[in-house]
Design goal:
Number of helices: 8
Structural class: alpha+beta
Radius of gyration: 69 Å
Number of strands: 10
Oligomer: single chain
Largest sheet: 6 strands, mixed
Strand order of the largest sheet: 1-2-10-7-4-5
Shape: rod-shaped
Length: 331
């Protein structure tokens, strides 16, 4: 058998085995990772088209193993027909080539395992950073809550002080209003007039309310100034503002029994509980104590002056009488 026939027999044997397996050159390329043009060159015994002698034996062995033949046996049978690659260097290259081809078909899971430590480290770092961030947020919220509580305590304290102050002011105001309550005393009452006096003075503007339970004509004069003059109808009400420091208020009533008068919260007794139903003139005097004291002082002064004058007159009369008596005796 000639050398060319043996070479053809090697390529033919490999091609027949491939066809028997039902594999195309594309299928074989996918399985062996050997380029299709090299597979065609092997089947055609055109070994010079391969990258080198080392790749001839490596590719032939891998081709044979893939199509169901024993690659090592095939290499031995056609050892003389294939390029010689029996040195240690070619053996190492062959082993590395086989391992590389196998490594290319390594499952994706194995690749993931190589990256697993890196992934774990990255996850741990992210968790630590997240914990630090969450701790910072919690501390900020706690600090904010503490500040709010402190502000609430301060505001509550100030509110309590203000409440105490307001309470004290209310008590003072209440005491003042009680102290300033008007109490009137009736004097100089006749069938048609009465004078109502109070020792208190008007320390502020005060409303005087006049209400009629029937037809009633009414007029009001304050310290000589007319403030009201009108006829009140049944169940009607009029209000007159008495200025601070007012001293004398004069009411002229057309129907006293049907008229109710209030100064502040004090109701005036105009008719002495109905005994003087025809009371027409009501004179109201504020700060009557001062006025009474002045009148008493004036009266005392007048009385003292009269007494002195009387004494002087008596002395003069006595002196004159004595003089006349002496003159008569001399004569």
């Amino acid at each position: 058998m000639s050398e060319n026939e043996e070479r053809v027999n090697v390529g033919k044997k490999l091609r027949e085995a491939r066809e028997k397996k039902g594999l195309t050159l594309d299928d074989l390329q996918q399985a062996t990772k050997i380029q299709k043009r090299y597979l065609i060159a092997i089947e055609g015994e055109k070994f010079d088209e391969l990258p080198g002698d080392f790749y001839v034996r490596a590719f032939v062995k891998q081709y044979a193993d893939t199509v169901g033949l024993d690659g090592n046996t095939l290499l031995k049978d056609y050892d003389d027909d294939l390029p010689q690659t029996k040195t240690a260097e070619y053996s190492n290259h062959l082993a590395q080539a086989v391992e590389t081809r196998t490594g290319n078909r390594q499952p994706t899971v194995d690749r993931a395992r190589r990256y697993l430590p890196t992934v774990i480290i990255a996850v741990v770092v992210v968790i630590i950073l997240g914990a630090i961030w969450a701790t910072a947020i919690v501390r900020n919220r706690q600090d904010a809550a503490t500040k709010i509580d402190s502000s609430s305590v301060s505001v509550s304290g100030e509110s309590s002080k203000k409440s105490s102050s307001s309470s004290s002011s209310s008590k003072s105001s209440s005491s003042s209003s009680k102290a300033a309550k008007l109490e009137f005393t009736a004097a100089n009452r006749t069938t048609s007039s009465v004078t109502l006096s109070t020792t208190s003075s008007l320390t502020k503007d005060t409303d005087m309310t006049i209400k009629a339970s029937g037809q009633a004509w009414t007029s009001v004069t304050v310290d000589g100034t007319s403030k009201l003059s009108k006829a009140l109808t049944t169940n009607s009400t009029s209000t007159v503002s008495l200025p601070k420091g007012a001293q004398t208020v004069v009411l002229t009533l057309g129907n006293a029994s049907a008229t109710t008068v209030k100064i502040g919260d004090q109701t005036l007794d105009l008719t002495d509980s109905g005994k003087y139903a025809n009371t027409r003139t009501v004179t109201i005097k504020f700060g009557a104590t001062t006025t009474a004291s002045s009148s008493a002082s004036s009266t005392s002064t007048s009385a003292a002056s009269s007494s002195v004058a009387t004494t002087t007159n008596s002395t003069s009369t006595t002196a004159t009488t004595n003089t006349s008596t002496q003159s008569s005796s001399t004569r």
